[in-house]
Amino acid sequence: MPKREPTPRSAFDAAYYHRFYGDPRTRVADPESCAALAGFVFSYLQYMGVPVERVLDIGCGVGLWRQEVLRRYPAARYVGVEKSDHACREHGWEKGCVTDYRAEERFDLVICQGVLPYLDDAGAEAAIRNLPNLVRSALYLEVLTREDWERNCDQRVTDGRVHLRSAAWYRERLRRDFLACGGGLFLRKGTPVALFELEYLA
């Protein structure tokens, strides 16, 4: 497989967001797909009894999650954080990066969708080490892995200019602080949630 150069952070401009979020022919996500995903995430959190009062969407892009959070939890505080200068100017997000972002309080839910593959190994390690500083209860994490690129995703609309690592690479590092619940949801270890043993993933 030919080597792909990762997308430089400076390329997260208007053209990038138009291609992957605006143009119906090439977008990888839209409000409808986010609504379906959010329905699953919030239903699972409700089932587990996890309150949702503070939500951090780190690497929030065009903010597809914002509407879903506030529609289901009108009193919740939603914080959108972005590394992209363009996205911050366009949508008013707070400037920051998952590798070192800090807040005064942890969040009930942290959403980190499609961010870590854009970081090199050192950056992704730093991000995973930082997540426990941000997560009070639950983490929704979506990561394009090497296996996904080879077998699962639609390469025509997926940005493959990323750092592709194995799923095992991520699992090994996440298990230090998180319990995998399936569907991309993780609980921070110590969160007082009672699930049956097979509801956790090994």
Largest sheet: 7 strands, mixed
Shape label: globular
CATH topology: Rossmann fold
What is the succession of H and E elements? HHEHEHEEHEHHEE
Structural class: alpha/beta
CATH class: Alpha Beta
Number of domains: 1
Mean pLDDT over the full residue set: 90
Explain this structure.
- By secondary structure, this protein is α/β, with parallel strands linked by helices.
- It has a single domain, classed as Vaccinia Virus protein VP39 (Rossmann fold, 3-Layer(aba) Sandwich), CATH 3.40.50.150.
- It has seven helices and seven strands.
- Strands 3-2-1-4-5-7-6 form a seven-stranded mixed sheet.
- The radius of gyration is 16 Å and the shape is globular.
What's the short version?
With about 200 residues, the protein is an alpha/beta fold. The chain has helices spanning about 15-20, 30-50, 65-70, 85-90, 120-135, 145-150, 165-175; strands spanning about 55-60, 75-80, 95, 105-115, 135-140, 180, 185-190.
